[in-house]
UniProtKB/TrEMBL annotation:
Encoding gene, per UniProt annotation: gabD2_2
Any one GO BP annotation for this protein: aldehyde metabolic process
Protein species of origin: BD1-7 clade bacterium
Keywords: Oxidoreductase
Name recorded for this polypeptide: Aldehyde dehydrogenase
Domain of life assignment: Bacteria
Length: 515
């Protein structure tokens, strides 16, 4: 069952795609992909709107955001309905990941924006501080392009957009072609909240639409969330115009279970971390390394929890595990699991597609005896699959966790928190958790980003918000003009040598100015 079916081009030359509900195979609607000409017109509109938006105070922009939050809360049932139809995710996941998370982000950024974006004043370093001050201004970049993925289509469109808008930019966003209305609805909500025309616009289209956005010389920054392969293409596109960009890419997150871990809590954490959002979660658990003394007990607990998950929309609000969002992702999940089984892995639960064939359903799957050279251990699976590996000790677990091209997130489970911190500091990832699972993106006051092939730059945190600005230092001299520059002479040369000797070779100088 294909989620997207091309239907040719219409009279205006736009490609038409037919969308299908992944949970039941029912037709949803046709969409028209915006062309390069459409994209340019939208960006022009954003450029025209940006100066007036930037001229507002941060406090005024915050007021717009608060109205946006009210619209989200008032229209949450409509948003959830669209999210469930386009993704097939459970109601609880839609409510928590898409509605609650966006409202929480708005609340946090509205509280922090004025302080974070406020002009700062400080003295220049060293002896220049006696004569010069620096005024640091955080200037909007202009028009920001946001490319959002299909796994969190509303929240991953909204969060970077909120930050960029608060910083004084206008935004042109594009969601995935398989979840187009989940992203487009943000533009509708901004309009309902009274945002000026052109401040927040969302494109509908496929990869060619996104390419037109990222390659435009009128875009001043691109914030991309998605796959490694597409992220590299975005980077290449941005480099043509020296457009700044941030990339939040995939992960292969490792979970380390120490022998002294609380196994009940760790097992629940593993199943939730591997299966929430049907495993379509950049911080989801993809590899589990368990110390030998507790391996069998841990596998038993995880298997019991995973096998009890309720899957399918017939469970209504009680549904635990939803549909796979995209048939292409289903193929990847099946290929990884089948390859692992062919190499000797054994499923303790799950392992094969389920359902009547009308929807895309893959059960929570636990695998043991997994060949560590298999695709399941090396590539991002992005599905509800938990391979569990036995290790002799924490050193082996650390080495295996770091043996990856990815470096987004991970977790350590132990009742010795100091040990947990010590291990976490040695894992080569952008962030880590101790006795917790995959919540880093939802902590807006901390930066979120990856190392290795998991991305460049970060979102969230003070630097995330300021990343949508140009930090502009303005140096102000205490005394008007300069009267000691030219002409050079022996006296000035000797004075400079004496000054350096005083600053760095005298006791008083080092005390006054530092080592």
């Amino acid at each position: 069952m294909a989620i997207i079916q091309p239907k040719g081009t219409n009279e205006e030359g736009r490609q038409v795609l037919s969308l299908t509900n992944p949970a039941n195979g029912e037709f949803l609607y046709d969409i028209e992909c915006q062309t390069a000409e459409d994209v340019n017109a939208v960006i022009e509109k954003a450029h025209l709107a940006q100066p007036a938006w930037a001229a507002l105070s941060v406090t005024q922009r915050v007021e717009y955001m608060m109205r946006l939050r009210e619209q989200i809360l008032d229209q949450q049932d409509r948003i959830i309905d669209v999210v469930i139809k386009e993704t097939g995710k459970p109601m609880q996941d839609a409510l928590t990941f898409e509605i609650y998370a966006v409202c929480a982000f708005i609340s946090y950024w509205c509280k922090q924006a004025s302080k974070t974006l406020k002009e700062e004043t400080f003295r220049a370093s060293g002896i220049m501080g006696l004569m010069k001050k620096v005024h640091m201004q955080y200037c909007p970049l202009g028009v920001v392009g946001v490319i959002a993925p299909w796994n969190g289509p509303f929240v991953l469109t909204a969060n970077p957009t909120i930050q960029a808008l608060l910083a004084g930019n206008t935004v042109v966003a594009k969601g995935s072609e398989i979840t187009p209305i989940c992203s487009k609805i943000l533009e509708d909500l901004c309009r309902d909240a009274g945002f000026p025309e052109g401040v927040c616009q969302v494109l509908i289209g496929d990869g060619s639409t996104g390419a037109a956005l990222t390659s435009s010389p009128m875009i001043d920054k691109v914030a991309f969330t998605g796959s490694v392969a597409t992220g590299k293409k975005v980077a290449e596109s941005c480099l043509q115009n020296l457009t700044p960009y941030s990339l939040e890419l995939g992960g292969k997150d490792a979970m380390i279970i120490c022998a002294d871990a609380d196994l009940d809590k760790a097992a629940h954490g593993a199943v939730w971390g591997g299966c929430v959002n049907t495993g379509h979660f950049c911080c989801g658990i993809e590899r589990i390394y368990v110390e030998a003394p507790v391996y069998d007990a841990f596998v038993e607990k995880v298997t019991k929890i995973a096998s009890a998950l309720r899957q399918g929309q017939q469970f209504g609000v009680d549904e635990d595990l939803g549909a796979v969002f995209w048939d292409r992702q289903m193929s990847i999940i099946e290929d990884h699991v089948n390859d692992a089984i062919a190499r000797g892995a054994k499923p303790t639960t799950g392992g094969k597609r389920v359902g009547d064939g009308k929807g895309l359903y893959f059960p929570a799957t636990v695998l043991v005896d997994v060949d560590e050279s298999s695709d399941l251990m090396k590539k991002e699976t992005f599905g509800p699959v938990l391979p569990i590996i036995k290790v002799a000790n924490e050193e082996e677990a650390i080495a295996k966790a770091n043996d990856s091209n990815y470096g987004l997130h991970g977790s350590v489970w132990t009742q010795d928190k100091l040990k947990g911190l010590r291990i976490a500091r040695r894992i080569q990832t952008g962030s880590m958790a101790v006795n917790d699972i995959g919540m880093m993106y939802g902590v807006p006051n901390a930066p979120f980003g990856g190392v290795k092939e998991s991305g460049m730059g970060s979102i969230n945190g003070q630097n995330g918000l300021r990343g949508y600005t140009h930090p502009k230092p303005i140096i102000v001299g205490r005394y008007a003009g300069m009267d000691s520059g030219y002409p050079h002479d022996q006296k000035k040369y000797d004075q400079m040598k004496k000054l350096m000797n005083f600053m760095w070779q005298s006791t008083i100088g080092r005390l006054l100015l530092g080592p």
